[in-house]
């Protein structure tokens, strides 16, 4: 069967391309759709359907633009009621793609409209399952997201729906089916996804905790809901965009792709409430940046941290990027619904510097230099990694302020004495540093390489040992 996974690592997302006999289908496309159109063109195929497994929360799907550009039909599963024309498929309905068939399996739980698509080859053999966020490799979709859009859909209700969907629709299927999920490790749509992005259903029945046949419904609910962290704040807004529709990415980019010289950039920055977002590497940002700009580098989990740290999805944004990375920055913002970029600094930060404008810098030290500092004086150390990372292992005496909570804990950072900042590798701590600098702190240093490098020093570390539960 000709099916291809198109994986985008920065948001741990998988779309799928299915082609047979000159007809093609795309499953769960990203916002930018030209790569799918190009892929079908390469096969001299016409995109017939765009299948959506559910209303996505972690990205804005490209189904509307793709349908408009190719005349493909948009297909959702039962109960989906968006504000645009779709085929609302019935449970068990068959769609034909050339010599292949796609069977609809309604699998509510992650959301009520969640649907799994069973792929059947030209010989009538069941080949695989496109599971969306119903079943991941090693995990299942979290059932707490829909309640942020529809209050009546409590996480308990959805978890029970998910239990029944897995038992009645997924687990009875053949072990040799290939599972094609919508996400891999790093996505906020689950809590313990594997780095693997496909597997056999049979192996998942053996290894995935949620498919344990001995697990009762109540045990399943407890297991699935335990350990869930708050979802990123932009999730509900993305769901609504996917339900109600959105402006074409072509239109968004036309407005965003506006080069501004230094004078224009400065004027617009002063006259608007636009956020200056610098997407360069942490090392480049530290060496010089426009005052009051925030560093979220393209080289890391850009979309996730934009969504975590910029609470208003409609926030106007001015971009400072590495030369040639302007449009990539805009597209990656729009993937998660941040469509209000109003321009970028032409010729990048160097043009600002050459114009003699005010420049800020941030001091960084190596882990070895940190070791020497802490031998000679007591300096507070702040660890901005996730709590789970901190509990796993941390520098003795370090205070944990997770990056996504930093704005609620600013009072914990001293203003009258110096302190040290670190994360795992330097990406998140530079984001934190840029926020602190913007808020008026300037008496701190950042550790290059973060805890990864600190671990190699002789500084005392502590391992967290989970207490034994007495039965």
TrEMBL record:
InterPro entries: Metallo-B-lactamas, Mito_Persulfide_Diox, POD-like_MBL-fold, Rhodanese-like_dom, Rhodanese-like_dom_sf, RibonucZ/Hydroxyglut_hydro
All residue ranges annotated as the Rhodanese domain in the record: 270-361, 375-463
Keywords, in A-Z order: Hydrolase, Metal-binding
Gene Ontology MF annotations: hydrolase activity; metal ion binding; sulfur dioxygenase activity
Domain of life from the UniProt record: Bacteria
SUPFAM superfamilies: Metallo-hydrolase/oxidoreductase, Rhodanese/Cell cycle control phosphatase
GO biological process assignments: glutathione metabolic process; hydrogen sulfide metabolic process
PANTHER family tied to this protein: PERSULFIDE DIOXYGENASE ETHE1, PERSULFIDE DIOXYGENASE ETHE1, MITOCHONDRIAL
Identification of the protein by name: MBL fold metallo-hydrolase
């Amino acid at each position: 069967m000709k099916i291809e996974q198109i994986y985008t690592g920065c948001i741990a997302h998988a779309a799928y391309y299915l082609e047979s006999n000159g007809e093609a289908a795309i499953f769960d496309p990203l916002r930018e759709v030209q790569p799918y159109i190009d892929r079908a063109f390469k096969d001299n195929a016409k995109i017939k359907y765009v299948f959506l497994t559910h209303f996505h929360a972690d990205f804005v799907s490209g189904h509307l633009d793709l349908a408009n550009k190719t005349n493909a039909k948009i297909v959702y599963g039962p109960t989906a009621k968006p504000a645009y024309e779709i085929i609302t498929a019935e449970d068990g309905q068959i769609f034909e793609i050339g010599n292949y068939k796609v069977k609809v399996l309604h699998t509510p739980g992650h959301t009520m409209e969640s649907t799994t698509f069973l792929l059947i080859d030209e010989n009538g053999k069941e080949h695989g399952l496109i599971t969306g966020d119903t079943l991941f490799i090693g995990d299942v979709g979290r059932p707490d997201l829909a309640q942020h859009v529809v209050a009546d859909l409590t996480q308990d209700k959805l978890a029970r729906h998910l239990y029944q969907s897995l038992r009645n629709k997924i687990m009875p299927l053949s072990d040799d089916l290939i599972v094609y999920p919508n996400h891999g490790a790093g996505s906020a749509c689950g809590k313990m996804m594997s780095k693997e992005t496909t597997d056999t259903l049979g192996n998942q029945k053996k290894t995935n905790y949620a498919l344990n046949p001995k697990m009762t419904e109540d045990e399943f609910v407890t297991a699935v809901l335990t350990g869930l962290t708050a979802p990123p704040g932009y999730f509900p807004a993305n769901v609504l965009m996917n339900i109600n529709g959105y402006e074409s990415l072509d239109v968004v980019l036309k407005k965003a792709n506006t080069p501004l010289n230094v004078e224009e950039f400065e004027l617009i920055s002063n006259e608007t409430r636009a956020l200056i977002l610098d997407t360069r590497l942490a090392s480049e940002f530290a060496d010089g940046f426009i005052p009051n700009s925030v560093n979220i580098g393209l080289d890391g989990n850009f979309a996730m941290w934009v969504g975590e740290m910029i609470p208003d999805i409609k926030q106007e944004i001015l971009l400072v990027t590495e030369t040639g990375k302007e449009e990539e920055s805009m597209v990656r913002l729009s993937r998660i619904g941040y469509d209000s970029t109003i321009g970028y600094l032409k010729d990048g930060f160097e043009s600002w510097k050459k114009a003699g404008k005010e420049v800020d810098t941030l001091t960084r030290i190596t882990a070895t230099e940190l070791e020497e500092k802490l031998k000679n004086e007591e300096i507070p150390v702040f660890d901005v990694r996730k709590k789970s990372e901190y509990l796993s292992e941390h520098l003795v005496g370090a205070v944990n302020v997770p990056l996504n909570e930093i704005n609620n804990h600013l009072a914990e950072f001293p203003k009258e004495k110096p302190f040290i900042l670190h994360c795992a590798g330097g990406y998140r701590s530079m984001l934190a540093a840029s926020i602190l600098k913007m808020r008026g702190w300037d008496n701190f240093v950042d550790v290059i390489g973060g805890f990864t490098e600190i671990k190699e020093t002789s500084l005392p570390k502590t391992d967290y040992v989970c207490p034994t539960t007495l039965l």
